[in-house]
Design goal:
With 243 residues, this protein is an alpha+beta fold. Helix content is 31%, strand content 14%. β6 (213-216) and β7 (219-225) form a beta hairpin. α2 (37-45) crosses α5 (127-136) and α4 (98-112) crosses α6 (195-209). The chain is globular, with a radius of gyration of 19 Å. Bound molecules: zinc ion.
Length: 243
């Protein structure tokens, strides 16, 4: 009896974890925002992105699934399943500047031959959302969020957060860490995890590097397109980008 009692809780916990892994999407890493997200959103919407003086190319944001509907979406910032625990986007959509979007499409096609497709967690991100992330995050975790005074490459429509899905099962694969996990397991050169996890991380990175993207060393899932400096910081909402 004592033996059963002792193991009652861990078995339940294990069952819950298995349920989450098997039947719902992966649960995101989570922090407690320094202030309520609604308060941060109201403050961020009143502010303007930094002004940059150089000449830029004209923005031409393309919706990724319109290029190829087999590119999958898991836009966690449009749900509560993200590191702040509240929705930041009102629509689950992903955009990149046209040359970056076309390069991503080539990577998606290249991966198909190896049994994988791309699953997108985030692309273009309005500047005010970057401001919310920064203001919500404690100093010791700020390495994982972009400084709004400089803007994020996501704000320029030239950064993408993504992983692989298995073409047979349709499910996102396991990597050495979860997406948006603020720990050293997120580092692109983290030596832990399983051999298969590290192999899939390399496969993704190689396919993206072949098309002009560079991995962010602190996040295996984040890639910057080579021409990001040529695009301005944007603050358009998804609703402003048409249907
Ligand atoms: Zn990113």
């Amino acid at each position: 009896m004592n033996f059963l009692k002792k193991f009652h809780f861990p078995l339940c916990a294990l069952f819950i974890v298995l349920l989450q892994l098997g039947f719902t999407q992966e649960i995101s890493f989570h922090i407690t925002p320094l202030r309520p997200v609604e308060e941060l959103r109201a403050a961020a919407l009143k502010q303007q992105p930094p002004r940059e003086q150089r000449a830029f190319l004209k923005a031409d944001l393309v919706e990724l699934v319109k290029l190829d509907p087999t590119i999958k979406l898991d836009i966690r910032y449009a749900t509560s399943n993200n590191f702040l625990g509240s929705p930041l986007y009102t629509q689950a959509r992903a955009f990149l500047q046209r040359p970056a979007a076309e390069a991503l499409l080539l990577a998606h096609h290249e991966l198909k031959a190896q049994g994988y497709g791309l699953i997108i967690h985030d692309g273009y991100r309005p500047w005010y959302v970057t401001k919310i992330f920064w203001d919500a995050t404690a100093d010791d975790k700020k390495i994982f969020v972009a400084d709004p005074r400089e803007g994020s490459k996501h704000n320029r429509g030239c950064a993408v957060d993504l992983s692989l899905y298995d073409l047979k099962s349709g499910k996102e694969v396991k990597m050495p860490s979860g997406y948006d996990e603020m720990s050293d397991r997120a580092y692109a050169d983290y030596a832990g995890g399983t051999t298969d996890e590290r192999a899939r991380r390399s496969l993704l990175r190689q396919a993206m590097e072949n098309q002009g993207f560079a991995v962010y060393p602190q996040e295996w899932w984040h890639f910057d397109y080579k021409d990001w400096k040529r695009y301005p910081i944007l603050n358009l909402k998804f609703e402003d980008l048409g249907q």
